[in-house]
Amino acid sequence: MIGGIEAGGTKCVLAVGETPDSIAATHTIPTRNPDETVAEALDWFSTQPSLTALGLATFGPVGLDRERADYGHILATPKPGWSGFDLAGALADGLHVPVTVDTDVNAAALAEARADGSVRSLAYMTVGTGIGVGLVIDGRCVHGAAHPEMGHYYPRRPVHDDAFAGVCPFHGDCLEGLASGPAILARWGATLSDLPETSAAHERVAHYLSQACHTLFATTSVEKVVLGGGVLQTPGLRERIAELVTELDAGYLPGGNRHQIIAPRLGQMSGITGAMILAA
Fold it and tell me: What integer pLDDT is reported at residue 148 of this predicted model?
């Protein structure tokens, strides 16, 4: 029996099963402070069959180099109280099993690429409490010096759209600072789904996210960008982003219509399935 945790900014999804394709039980807990969150997770796992391994797909930044002392630690994060916390170590000590770590979006990308079966390259972008991008090339997650943090790149802002400073405590008006759920709420006073269709928010958010998708296609040549997360539950948003990506490209990229914007095949299960893949 293996276990998985998808640790997000507002909630953690826990799971156990024999394989990633045969999840036997899941449970969701709120993401509180580190000690409370780990304690609640361990309590639930104590009610399940014994595990042989755990996959941890967590919000970042997170240490992914096994040779470094900060492997499995949450690094400098905007989430209060979590910077420097040894999340993998706390779980390994509590469950007495090896823990394999990656970002929540890398794990989701891994699961989506596996479910698709027809692509060698895929990016997964989640837009919710934060914005994160995971990247899989030839079946492997891309890490490099650490892991992708595309939520913190700076999109081009429209002329005369400089009054809103953005909400990212590190970068202000990076992509996450302009188009995440908290950014939308701070700027327009409601979630994107709750704002009327006539609100400028819809086109503005689509504009920022389409730039990120086009940048992914242009810099990595991935075949598909999977768009998930709470903000993407807004009706018509994904389709509008795809239209804008086509406009931005202007027929230039050699990948042509092989570059696609799609919804998650696994729905809300992408992240936790990826966590289980890490454990397998």
Answer: 87
